[in-house]
Each structure stands twice: as C-alpha cells, then as structure tokens.
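Q: Sequence in, structure out?
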Amino acid sequence: MFSEMDFMLRERFKNISVQQLFERLDLPAQTQHRLEDFNHAGSDIASWIEEECHGDFNMQLALLRQFLPDLARWKASPANRMALADSLRPQVERGIEAMVVQATAQDSVPRMGQRHDLQAALTLLTWMPQIYAGICRDFTCRILPARRTHSLRLASLQCAIECLGKVVLLSARCYLPAPAGTWRRLHTLFAIATKLEIVDLPGAGPGARTARDQYLLATLFAGAEPARLHGSNQQKLIEVLCACAPLADIQATTLSGSALRVSLNQDLPPLTRSRVRYRGEPLAATMDSIEWRIDVEPIAKLLQAAEKSWPAGLPRNAQNVLLHLQRSWANSRHRTGTRHASSERCKLVTGVSHCCGYLNRISTGNITWREFLARLRESRPLGVTPVPANQVEDGLPDAGESGSAEYQRLAQHAFSARIVDSNSRGARLRTESELPSHLFVGQLLYMIAERGNRQLAFVRWISANSDSTSIGVEYIARDATPVHVAFCAGRKKSPYLEGLLIPGRASRLRQQSLLLPTPFFATGSCVEIFRKARKGSPVRRLQLTNKVTTGRALGLFLFEQR
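A: Exactly. Output:
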C-alpha cells in the first residue's frame, strides 16, 4: 500500500527539489573551522564534559549551550560530526528527561520557576536534529566518497526525525508548546525522506524503526490531544501508538474519514477536522498547497471493535487511554455552541475533599454566600467567620486556633484565575499565579466567579508557558451537597468516604447524580449516603446505575432508590 502512496506524495513534491527542502530547515551555515575551547577534549567530548562538570547537570547544560551551536556550524567532515553527535546525544537526552521527570513528579504541572529552565532545555535539544539534518544535507548535496555515504545519510536523517519526535513528547509531558520551528522541521524532514525514497528503510541495529514510523509516532501523538492526559497516561498513549502506528496511512488526497491534516509550510502540529474548524478559518485557506493527510481510520476502527471486549485484566486507566484515543480521532470531541469572551475573575478550589469543605462553610453559615462573594471582589482571603461553637452542626472548627489551621489547609488548595471565554458546557481559564502542586488533568474544581456564578467542573486540558497557564474545564453542575458515602455488600459496609450529591435542577443531565471516587465505586454498586453537614440526616440506600462522565479517579454516577 505504501508504494502507490509514496508515488502520490512524490508527485506532490515534484516541483520542489531536495536542496530547496533543506533550505526550508534554516540550518546554520558551516563557518566554524575549529571547536574553540573544546579541541583539547578529543573525540570523547561527552566524557570530558561530564568530568569537567562533576555530574552537575546545570553546568553540563551551560557547556552544551555553548558547544551544540558550534558543532552545528563546524566545518568538518560529516562522518566526524556524526561521531561527535552520536556520543553527545544520549547525555543530552538523559539529562533533559531527568529534568522533565523531576518537574512533573506525580503528574503535576511544572511550577512557574521551572518552566523557563524546561523551555531552555527543550530549545537546546532542538540543536541535535539541526546537527543531524546538516550532516544529512552534506551526504545528500555534496560529492563525497561513496563508502558508507548511503548508510550514514539514512542514519542522520532518522536521528534528526527521532530527536524532533523526542522534543514533541517531552514538551507535551510538561504541558508546554513545542519550541518554535519544531513542526515545520519535522514535516520537512519527512518530505526529504520521501523525496529520497528512504522513508521506509529500517535503520541499523535490532528493532530500529523507519523514518515513517518515527514521524507517525510524533504526529499521531500530537493529534491525539495529549494535553487532555496526565503524564503516566501519556506514556501509555505512546505505547499504544508504537503498536498501532503501522496501521496509519499517509495520503496526498482528501479523505472523508478520520484524518489528521498536515501542512509543509506551517509550523503546526497535525490538525483534526474539528480543530481546523475551531481555528475559525476555511479548510482551503488553513492548509497551503503542499499538504498531506494521515488516515487514522484503521486505528479508530480497531479501537472501536476492541471497546466491545476489553482483554481480561486490562487496567482501568489503560481503557481510559484507549477510549480517549478513539474519541479524539472520531471527531466526536469538539466544541458545541459559541464561546463568549470574558475577563471575569474567579476563585478555584481543587479536589473533592476541599470542595466539600468550602460547600460546607457556605451551607452551615460559617461564612455567608454574600460575604463570600464580597471577599472575592475585594481579593480578600476566603477565611472563616467567627460563630458560636454550638452553631457549627457538622464539627467544623470554630474561630480559635484550630479554625486558623483549617483555613491554612484549605487555602493551599485554592487559586485565582480569569475566565477567557465560556459557554454553557465549559470554559477556558488563564492564571498567572502559581498552581497547587496537585492540579492535574481530570482533577475536580469548584469555581466561584466574582459575579456569583458557581460551577463544579473537571479539568480537561492544561497548556502552560513561562508566565501563565491555560486550563480547559468541563462544567458538571452549578451546585452540590457534600455527603458521606459507604459501599454496601449485604450487611457489611465500608468506612464512609466523601462525595457530592448533585441535584437535578443544578446538573446538565437534569437528573440527580453522585460524584464518587471510582476505585471504590462502580456501576452496579450499592451505596449508603447521608448529608455531611446536617446532624440527624436520614440515611439513604441507592444503586449506582450508570457512569456518565469521569475525571481522574472520579466518576459521575446516576442512581436509583433501593
């Protein structure tokens, strides 16, 4: 199937030469005759850098920032440059991966102070594909001895594509955009491999992937909306795509099914049809004449068939990743309704326990809703109003020392943001403040806007840059009641856990529902609930009938009375 496709793609590229494609990469000119300050290191420069810096990666980064641009401009034989690049690449990638893992520990969003360093490190990593692409250009466009020329040209091109794919994967893990020029270079390198007819040749060594497989892994990953997944699920997504990527088909013609659209002349990741519509531009104007499509219909059909009979023992989070992938490519996930611009400020509380805490304070009179909103408008702390201890019905702390400690605990899980745009189903928020360390995709939020609008919502995606964070949220309900919930099996029942009872009048579903932790509760479970903030509240027994939406370790369940 690939031969006909490659012929069509080569026809698409027939009016542009390989030399012109290399010019599109904007590679640095080779004007450096000597590697200043590094000649004494010899060929084993990676070991010299490690010894010079005594294992301190920050010092290594400083040296590499000086050395890699010089190596890209070094006027030496491509074989010598290839040997140096191959010795440095593992050290560079290993150090940057360690930075990313440390900054995203427990799937958290990197803190503001870390983002600048991460962006600088990712930009440093983009020098590796530029070095490899320059080597490939020399092997392709210069007259060189025939010995090993073909194999080194193939290896350098594959390394360039693989390094850019690594930049894409690590950027998504940090919720940061890929450095400028990443996508334009990646698409151009694939076009060069197709033009040279080496796109399907395997690299040296066991298990080596082709340039097509490496390109498809990066593009399919970006097209699967990784910002909607937390870090550990992104890794599962990569594993799924490594297995499924050979099923994808790259076409030069328009497709009617699920496809990702790619433009050679634009620095953009692959776009689904719904994302092109969201950009607000006509399809013909969005993509220029040199374009192709990645057909993901075979993968989508395979996942749809697999959904009917998951393998026994398949972890729940793995099922969620597969469902996410299927829905992303089925174009079923797109905005419904026009979003309206806004600049309204809001406060956000994260997590079920802390949402229950704030809802209790409002419902018990510990702080009135009018005062709560007044403090928001005045940007005052959401503290505790002193009330007599006998008025606190649910054991919440009074205005003494314990109350202050309780406030401090809750304050750590709250932050401010601005609503950028919204509709009846969700909103896009932006904040310049530091995020709570435990905020992640799938987290529950309680949003209190300054004009009085309240919403329970799930975090659906996160996008960060050096000075702000954008958060996409999906609304669940306008209000909820904190409850205690226990799992029941016959006469036995579990300890009570915190949950939220959502009335039908406040829900988009127009039905009563329960928001519960999914590891403990599932469809079909029998549960016992009573209101958390009211003494003597009647105990109700319910049967969970259907799970309608999920967050991370949370589910929204419909139920019926038992």
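The chain has 18 helices and 17 strands.
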